[in-house]
Amino acid sequence: MDENKEAFIRWQGYTLQQLSFVNNLLIGLSTGILALLFNTASNSANAYSLDYKFYISASVVFIFISLVFGISTAWNRLDDFRMTVRIAYKRWKKETEGIRKLRTKSKFLGKITWWCLGLQLAFFIAGSIFMLLIVILEMN
After folding, report:
1. Could you tell me if residue 74 is inside a domain?
2. How far, in Å, CA of 51 to CA of 137, rounded?
3. In-domain check, residue 102
4. Does residue 8 have a pLDDT over 80?
5. H helices of 2-98, where?
6. Chain centroid to CA 21
7. Which of 9, 11, 21 lies closest to 117 in space, CA to CA?
């Protein structure tokens, strides 16, 4: 096998591993932050402050949306892997019918996966910023 092709395959594998790691990390952190937010909201002396209610609500909404995109990322990856398995099976059976359509769908799912990961991160950051504001408000 060509050295460049081996390097590409190896780095493609690393990329998929890192995508999974980041997705799982953000899902885990988001779940923890949601638990912390609900605990903080129920035990806070600032619970009746309008600013506090806004920050809590905004943080919960952004973190929840981040979780939705995280789950979408994982689901799209599974769907993409299913397409890849179908393509490999058809190639193994030396069937050419439908491979182009499956590849097109797989490429589309790959793009959607990366968009979902980016949106997951963006909403996580937004929710975390509001969480930081809650912490600052709690300290005062």
Report:
1. yes
2. 9
3. yes
4. no
5. 3-43, 50-92
6. 10
7. 21
Look at residues 4, 19, 36 and name the one whose alpha carbon lies nearest to residue 115.
19
Tell me what pLDDT residue 94 has. Answer: 84
pTM across the whole model: 0.83
Q: Mean pLDDT score of the chain, rounded to an integer?
A: 88
pLDDT for the residue 6: 76
Residue 108 belongs to what domain range? 22-139
Amino acid, res. 79: D
Q: How far apart are CA 31 and CA 127, in angstroms?
A: 12
If phi over 0 gives left and psi between -120 and 50 gives alpha, with beta otherwise, what is residue 44?
Answer: beta
Q: Which of 68, 1, 12, 45 is nearest to 137 (CA)?
A: 45
Q: Is residue 11 part of a domain?
A: no
The Cα 35–Cα 30 span in angstroms is 9
H-helix or E-strand spanning residue 135: helix 99-139
Give dist(CA 70, CA 10) in Å, integer: 25
Q: Specify the residue for token string 């912490």.
A: 135
Q: CA-to-CA distance for 106 and 116, rounded, in angstroms?
A: 15
Q: Which residue has the tokens 């638990």?
A: 35
In a domain, 39, yes or no: yes
Q: How many domains does the chain have?
A: 1
